[in-house]
Amino acid sequence: MYSLSTSVWKMAQRTYHKVMHAYNSILYRDCLDLELKEVLFEKVQHHKQKMVESA
């Protein structure tokens, strides 16, 4: 069984990745520079993957 600190840490990580996913998604949607848009897309995918892993 997980300790309280472990479950709190996982919840904090999931919340962080949800917030960063939303933030980067907004930046990606509004970005006009193609190079920056690629970087933001990778960040969106990274945070999406981490949200799934921490669930």
- Low confidence ranges: none
How would you state the average pLDDT, rounded? Answer: 92
Biggest β-sheet strands, sense, barrel: none
What sequence of helices (H) and strands (E) makes up the elements?
A: HH
Q: Tell the overall outline.
A: elongated
The total beta strand count reads 0
What does the model show?
- The protein is mainly alpha-helical.
- The chain has 2 helices and no strands.
- α1 (4-30) runs antiparallel to α2 (34-53).
- The longest helix has 27 residues, at 4-30.
- The radius of gyration is 14 Å and the shape is elongated.
- The relative contact order is 0.16.
- The mean pLDDT is 92.
What is the strand and helix layout of this fold?
Layout: H1 4-30, H2 34-53
Please describe the structure with a list of short key phrases separated by commas or semicolons.
mainly alpha, about 55 residues
Short characterization:
The protein is mostly helical. It has helices at residues 4-30, 34-53.
